[in-house]
TrEMBL record:
This is Fic/DOC family protein. Keywords: ATP-binding, Nucleotide-binding. Residues 248-418 form the Fido domain. InterPro entries: Fido (IPR003812), Fido-like_dom_sf (IPR036597), Fido_containing (IPR040198). ATP binds at V289, P290, D291, H292, D339, G340, N341, G342, R343, L344, H345, R346. The active site is at H335. SUPFAM superfamilies: Fic-like. It comes from Pseudovibrio axinellae. PROSITE patterns: FIDO (PS51459). GO terms for molecular function: ATP binding.
C-alpha cells in the first residue's frame, strides 16, 4: 500500500521550520511511515521560493530540487543529498516490508540508486528479496565517500554494488566528512608525534611516557568522580600501557573490567543482566531520571560481537582516530557493564591508536587528562546522541530503582552519527601531540638542569631539593616568606637569590 507524503508544514516533530516547506528525503520518510528514530542533525525540505536556506537544522532547497512524492523518490533524494542514515533506513525497511522495495527495483533494475537501496535492504534486514541477480551495469558504491567515510570496498555481484560500509550490520556508526576533520587529518599528527619522540633522549622519553601514563590513568578516574588509592591508579595505568597488544574479545573486556573495578564486593562483574541508565533518582519517589539509557541486556551479545568484529577488521581500514572514536563512543552508549564503562570507553581510545601504531612506541597520549580539561565539551559530545536517543526509548521503572526498556532499541546503538565524537577526539589528540608530549619533555629537561645547577650551589637531600622546587614552581620562581623563614631558613641570602635565578634561567620558556 502506497504512503501519502505530507505537503508544506511549519512544524516537524515539535520543531519549527525556518519557513513553510515540504519535507523531503529522510524527513518525508520519517513522517510518512511514522518512524520512531533519533532525528538526523540536518533535515531537508523543499521551499516554495528559489532560495536555499540553511537554518535551525534544516536545509531548505528550491522547487527544482523536489523529488517525486514516492518511496523511491524520497529514498533517492536522501541517498543523493543526505548520505546514509542506517538507523532510519533499517526502521523504514521494517515498516514498509519487502514488496515495495521489490517493485521499486523491478521498475528500475539497473538504476544506481535502486540497486543501492536493494543492497542496503538485504544488508540491514538479512532478508533476501525475490529478485534475480543483476547481470549488467557498472558497479556503484553503497556509501558515497564524498559525504561520509567508508571502508574497504567488497564487491556484491548480486546487486553490482561495492560494499564500502565501514562496519557490519551488527555495528556500523558513520562519520560525515567535515572541514574540521580534514584540517585535523592534514595536520599529520602521527608524524608530528613520531618526530617529537625522536627529538627527545631515550631516557628522558621513558620518564615523559611514565608521567603521561600516570596522568591519563589518574584523570580517567577523576572524570568518574573517583579518587582511588595510588596502587589502583598504577594498576590501571599498567593496563593502559599494554593497550593494543591483546586483541579485543569478550574475555579481554571482562579482564579489563576486573582490573578497573578492583573491589568487586558491591559490583556485579560481567555483562549486565538488567537494564541500565546514566542519571539520577528522584529524591522523593526514587524513580529513575535518566540522561542516557543503556542497551537492553538481551542485545548485549550481538552488540559486543559487532564492536569486537569492527575492532578486529573494519577499524584497520579507517583513519585511526576516526576508528577510535567510533568504537569508544559506541561502547559507552551500549554501557554493557554495571560499572567501569567510562574508564573502559576511554581505554578503547588508547587500544585503537596503539594497535594502529599512531602513537610512538611506549608513549600513551594522555587523552583522559585533556578530556578532564574539556569536561563540558566532553559531556556535550556524549549528549549529542544521548539526548536524541532518549525520547525513542520506552521504559518502566523497577522496584530496585532501575529501569526496563520495553521497545526494540538495538539498532540505535548499532547505527549513529559519530561525526561530533570524531571531531572531539581529534581535538584531544592534537593537544596531546602538539602540547602535552613536547611540553612534558621540555619540563623534565628543565627540571634536570635545575637539579644539576642547584647541586653546584648547595648540597641537600633529594627530598628537600624536590620540596624547594615545588615552592618555586608554585610561586612563580620565588621563595615565599614562609619557605625562607622555615623549611629553608638555613640558606644564606645569597644562596636564596642564586636558587631563584637558577629556576628563572631553567624555566625562562613557557612550558
Amino acid at each position: 500500500m502506497s504512503k501519502t507524503f505530507s505537503q508544506a508544514v511549519t512544524v516537524f516533530r515539535e520543531s519549527w521550520l525556518p519557513v513553510p516547506a515540504t519535507p523531503a528525503g529522510y524527513a518525508a520518510l520519517i513522517d510518512a511511515y511514522d518512524l520512531r528514530v533519533p532525528i538526523p542533525h540536518t533535515l531537508y525540505a523543499i521551499g516554495d521560493r528559489h532560495k536555499i536556506i540553511e537554518k535551525d537544522g534544516w536545509h531548505i532547497l528550491t522547487p527544482r530540487h523536489a523529488p517525486e512524492p514516492t518511496l523511491l523518490g524520497h529514498l533517492t533524494f536522501a541517498l543523493k543529498n543526505e548520505g546514509l542514515d542506517l538507523a532510519v533506513l533499517k526502521r523504514l525497511f521494517l515498516a514498509c516490508g519487502p514488496k515495495p522495495i521489490e517493485e521499486m527495483v523491478k521498475s528500475r533494475p539497473t538504476g544506481r540508486y535502486s540497486r543501492r537501496i536493494w543492497f542496503l535492504y538485504e544488508w540491514l534486514t538479512n532478508d533476501l528479496l525475490d529478485l534475480p541477480a543483476v547481470e549488467t551495469g557498472a558497479y556503484v558504491d553503497a556509501l558515497d565517500t564524498a559525504k561520509q567515510y567508508g571502508g574497504t570496498p567488497i564487491a556484491s555481484p548480486r546487486h553490482r554494488v561495492r560494499n564500502n560500509l565501514p562496519g557490519t550490520p551488527l555495528f556500523c556508526p558513520l562519520i560525515f566528512r567535515r572541514k574540521e576533520l580534514e584540517v585535523f587529518q592534514q595536520a599529520n599528527l602521527q608524524q608530528k608525534a613520531m618526530e617529537a619522540a625522536a627529538s627527545v633522549p631515550k631516557d628522558l622519553l621513558a620518564r615523559t611516557a611514565a608521567f603521561l601514563l600516570l596522568k591519563d590513568s589518574k584523570s580517567s578516574f577523576e572524570i568518574e568522580g573517583e579518587r582511588p588509592a595510588h596502587d589502583r591508579i598504577q594498576r590501571w595505568g599498567r593496563a593502559i600501557a599494554e593497550s593494543g597488544k591483546t586483541p579485543l574479545s569478550i574475555e579481554e573486556f571482562l579482564r579489563l573490567q576486573r582490573i578497573v573495578i578492583g573491589d568487586d564486593r558491591f559490583v556485579q562483574l560481567g555483562f549486565r543482566e538488567e537494564g541500565g541508565f546514566v542519571g539520577i533518582h528522584d529524591r522523593e519517589s526514587h524513580m529513575p531520571v535518566p540522561d542516557h539509557i543503556s542497551a537492553k541486556p538481551e542485545d548485549l551479545s550481538s552488540l559486543m560481537k559487532g564492536m569486537i568484529d569492527f575492532a578486529q577488521d573494519h577499524a584497520k581500514h579507517l583513519d585511526p582516530v576516526l576508528a577510535a572514536a567510533v568504537l569508544a563512543f559506541g561502547f559507552v552508549y551500549v554501557h554493557p557493564f554495571e560499572d567501569g564503562n567510562g574508564r573502559l570507553h576511554r581505554y578503547l581510545f588508547h587500544h585503537v591508536l596503539a594497535q594502529r601504531g599512531f602513537n610512538p612506541a611506549g608513549v600513551v597520549f594522555p587523552v583522559s587528562s585533556v578530556i578532564l580539561e574539556r569536561i563540558d565539551d566532553y559531556r556535550q559530545v556524549l549528549e549529542d546522541y544521548s539526548t536524541r536517543l532518549l525520547g525513542k526509548v520506552d521504559w518502566q521503572p523497577t522496584q530496585q530503582g532501575n529501569l526496563t526498556v520495553t521497545n526494540d532499541t538495538a539498532d540505535f546503538y548499532r547505527f549513529f552519527d559519530a561525526t561530533a565524537h570524531a571531531q572531539f577526539l581529534y581535538a584531544c589528540v592534537m593537544q596531546t601531540v602538539e602540547h602535552d608530549l613536547p611540553e612534558e619533555a621540555r619540563f623534565l629537561q628543565s627540571h634536570d638542569r635545575f637539579q644539576r645547577e642547584l647541586n653546584e650551589v648547595v648540597d641537600m637531600p633529594a627530598r628537600l631539593a624536590d620540596l624547594l622546587f615545588r615552592f618555586l614552581n608554585q610561586n612563580n620562581g620565588k621563595l615565599s616568606e614562609r619557605a625562607k623563614s622555615k623549611e629553608f631558613a638555613a640558606l644564606t641570602l645569597e644562596e636564596k637569590e642564586l636558587v631563584e635565578n637558577i629556576y628563572t634561567r631553567c624555566f625562562d620558556e613557557k612550558i
